[in-house]
Design brief:
By secondary structure, the chain is α+β, with helices and mostly antiparallel strands. The protein is 41% helix and 22% strand. The chain is built from 15 helices and 13 strands. It has helices at 26-40, 66-88, 107-123, 152-158, 162-168, 174-177, 194-218, 263-269, 329-344, 350-361, 389-414, 421-440, 443-450, 455-458, 479-488, and strands at residues 9-15, 44-51, 55-62, 100-104, 224-229, 234-242, 247-260, 275-287, 294-305, 311-323, 363-364, 369-370, 374-381. The chain has a 7-stranded antiparallel sheet. The protein has a 4-stranded antiparallel sheet with strand order 2-3-1-4. Strand 11 and strand 12 form a beta hairpin. Helix 7 (194-218) runs parallel beside helix 11. It is elongated and about 95 Å long. The termini are far apart. The model is unreliable at 171-193 (pLDDT under 50).
Length: 495
Amino acid sequence: MEALEQDQYYHLYNRGVNSDTVFYSEANKVYFLKLLEHHLTPVLKILAYCLMDNHYHMVVKLIAPQEKAIQALANLFNAYTKALNKQVGRTGPIFEGRYKRKKITDETYLRNAIVYIHRNPELHGVVPSFKTYSFSSFPAFYNEPDPLIVDKELTIAVFNDFQHFEFMHERKHQDLYLEGFQNLQGIGKNDKHSLKDRFYAYIQDLQDTITEAIAAEDGKAKFQEDLWERPEGGGGRTRVIENGRVFEKGGVNISAVHGALPESMQTYFGVKDANFFACGLSLVLHPNNPFVPTVHANWRYFEMYNQQGDIVDQWFGGGQDLTPYYLFEEDAAHFHSVCKKACDAHNPDFYKAYKKKCDTYFWNAHRNEARGIGGLFFDYLKKGKSMDMTAWYKFVTEVGNSFLSAYLPIVSKRKAMPYGKAHRNWQEIRRGRYVEFNLVHDKGTLFGLRTNGRIESILMSLPPQVQWQYNHEPEKGSEEDKLVNVLKSPRSWVE
């Protein structure tokens, strides 16, 4: 059994010998909790617990040296075993050997373990709703009677805030979080998918960070949240902002979907009888002011499995790009310089390569022009000689973390600029070209439609007010014409 280390998190669990009962009554559970408080709180912090009739779970953080913790745990279980044996007239051990423990080194696993422990009574069919079960730590977070065992502040910090704590405990999302926790012996089965779990946790946090910053920049409108499920497996969290002071419409969405790969996608990837998992964050923001550019970003992860559940392929993709209606060269240089800085932290060749891919990908071929002034685009980032999947994870998250620094300074600078009806008309005409690209060329839109994604979330990227004027051409030499010339011949913005 691995050593106990101070300042580390652990999942402690065990069950009765031969799965026999170890808590015969509520009084037994109350007594065990009193012993828990007496023996363990001096040596560890408890983030979550649950007592079932024949087993228990705890998530703890060690705050004392190993020797003291081991002795305290031994004292707890010896005291309870002695008392229960006396009560029921038996002898010998009541638990299946020493307590089992798993060191938790991954934040996603830590959150998942807490959720699993709280949901345990419902998962075992003991109660219709885990929220009503008296002998878990969950009610303590709603100021229900609690023997002051749980460090509620530390637990909430694991989830960043109470809203996220509540969201992860929701029944409709348990399939996204509880994979690998279905029995005591298999407590660590999700470890082989830790990259998947880490990235999904990352985009959840990133969604919170971005929506908070965008709402603050707008100063009027708030994001409305919509939780949805995909019948074939998975779901997502859509957040939309509309009719704001700065943003006319926008969305910052996350999803995690899984199941059998649709036949059309099997043909696309050249595989048969494959299952998949895909998660990502996708955002589009359409401002009111024509001098503020529209922005798009996406960061995603994909896994493909054979019929035995083994990963046969995996990759990252994503990027971020800017679509202005009026060209301010200093804004373009700022956006691209932030993108380049994120790339250079991992490879000095990345910016040039992924800027070129962005110019190529966001090309409206039927119009012979770019959608915007580009940024970064990358896809099928797979394990290779110079970059393993962990290295790609670090790169993609670096780009994701750079987004607000790339975009918000431009918004702040341009959002109060005065504009007239002619500027607005031009903005709506250019928005029409944006719609054309998304519906004709965009792979993300096509993937969502082919995998039965949620249509409202897929089409969230479309602007609310759009124009198509027949054979419209801007006046030669105008600011509008200046933009079109750049779109027809993409250029470099930073060296």
